[in-house]
Structures are given as C-alpha cells and as structure tokens.
Automatic annotation (TrEMBL):
Keywords: Hydrolase, Magnesium, Manganese, Metal-binding. Probably binds two magnesium or manganese ions per subunit. The record marks 256 as: Interaction with DNA substrate. This is Exodeoxyribonuclease-3. The record marks 155 as: Transition state stabilizer.
C-alpha cells in the first residue's frame, strides 16, 4: 500500500505552531507533498525541516517569503529534481519531484492568479509551460515502466461540483473557463486522471480549501483545488481518499486540509 498526502500548509513556520508538527508525527502517509511553505531551509526547526523518519526535499522560492514546495518521504528517493526546466519558474518554488522504484511523485503549487491582472498572466504562462512537461513526464515514466502522481494545489476548480458557490465565481480566478479547459487538457490530452473525483464521482466536493473569511469553513462553503493527478495505472489502484478536515475552525493549521489517498501499489 502506498499512501500519499498533499496539503497547502499556508506558511510552514506558522503551521508548525498550530499543529503541523503533531500532524506529521501522526500521519500514516508514506509521502507528503506540501505547497506554500514560504520558508528557507535554515528558517525551520529540526522538527519541521527534518522530522525523524523522513527524507525531505524543500524547494523555496527565490522571492523570499512566497510560494515554496516540499516533498517528505519515508523512503529515500532514487532521484529528485526542483523545477521542470522553466527559465521563469524553476526558482519560484512551484514544483519539486522525487522518483522511487515504481513511481514519480511531484508537488505542485500552481499560481493562484487574479482575473484581469498580471498575476493571471503569470498563471497562464505557467500553465502553457507545464502542460508539455506533464506530457513529457508521462512518456518518460512509461518508458521506464513507472507511474506518475502530481499532487498539490492546482488552484483550479475543474467542475461546478468542485466549489460551493460556482454561480458567483464564474469570473473569478480558479474557475475561469480557460483555466477549466486547460485542466481538461491535462486529463484528456496528457492522459492523466483526477484520482479523488474518480473515487467520488457525484460530488459535491469533497472540498479542500475554505476561506478564512466569514463562515466558509463552518458552512462547508469550499473549493476543491488540491488534487491527486495520476497516470491511469496508478489511478486505477486508488482504494481510499479522505480530506482531513479539521474538527472545528480553531483546530485548523492551514486554510487547506490534507488530501490523503491510499493506493494498492
């Protein structure tokens, strides 16, 4: 069994003070992909940057205090990489990847964007570069007899059942038609599968992000933007998925919840 968890920690230093350290100590996951770590290696305590029993890969952003991804694994990877060959994005803390005997696992933090602003232009440039990489990665893995799993905060709700208030967000970044079309291309053209949606085909949700504003968490007015995106062979072996939503607002250590999937691998 291979169990993988993905979570946007909304600042690893802040999360460590609110419950992340206890969570990582208790999790049954074999691999944890993290996004929005927002920390340099030397800014983290030993308990956070190198927990006992874990091998860690951190990819901070060159723009300090922003973005950042990480992958923690119980087993040492046979290889690892930071970035995906992009002159613009490889130092921005957006993607890190580890390779094991049978699977390649990536942690992705896709730019959030903001409709009608340069931030949205940045998001579109990232998507334009990342899709060909996903296609190349799948081909490379297939040649080596391996599966691929790209976990993370994709910052796109793919379908209406992926967010509570979809009617009011049709012009919002994260639910724009062109973003949703791009994610469809990841599945249809690049040949990947939305693992959690495969296990929960009807919806709504399960949501993985809730705004800190208002009563979004209490009302489960969320978005499903944290995905396990896998090649078909691995996706077909998914047996269980759970969103580890905090029991109450005050118990949250991030505005996202871990999305954990077990694979019969």
């Amino acid at each position: 069994m291979l169990t993988v968890s993905t979570v946007n920690v909304n600042g690893l230093r802040a999360a460590a003070k609110k419950g992340f350290v206890e969570w990582i100590a208790a999790t049954g996951a074999d691999v944890v992909c993290m996004q929005e770590t927002r920390a340099e290696y030397d800014q983290l305590s030993d308990a956070v940057r190198a927990p006992e029993g874990w091998h860690t890969l951190l990819a901070p952003s060159s723009d300090k205090g922003r973005s950042g991804v990480a992958v923690y694994s119980r087993s040492a990877p046979v290889s690892s990489r930071i970035g995906f060959g992009s002159a613009e994005f490889d130092t921005s803390g957006r993607y890190a990847e580890v390779e094991f005997d049978g699977v390649i696992i990536g942690s992705l933090y896709l730019p959030s964007g903001e409709a009608g602003t340069p931030k949205q232009d940045e998001k579109e440039r990232f998507m334009e570069e990342f899709l060909p990489y996903l296609q190349e990665l799948r081909a490379r893995a297939e040649k080596a007899g391996k599966e691929v799993l790209v976990c993370g905060d994709w910052n796109i709700a793919h379908q209406e059942i992926d967010l509570k208030n979809w009617k009011n967000n049709r012009k919002s970044a994260g639910f724009l038609p062109e973003e949703r079309t791009w994610l469809s291309r990841v599945f249809d053209e690049a040949g990947y599968t939305d693992v959690v949606r495969g296990l929960f085909p009807e919806g709504p949700g399960p949501y993985s992000w809730w705004s800190y504003r208002g009563k979004a968490f209490d009302n489960d007015s969320g978005w499903r933007i944290d995905y396990h995106v896998a090649t078909g062979g691995l996706a077909g072996r998914a047996t269980e998925a759970v969103v580890e939503k905090a029991p109450s607002y005050d118990k949250r250590w991030s505005d996202h919840a871990p999305v954990t999937v077990s694979y019969d691998f």
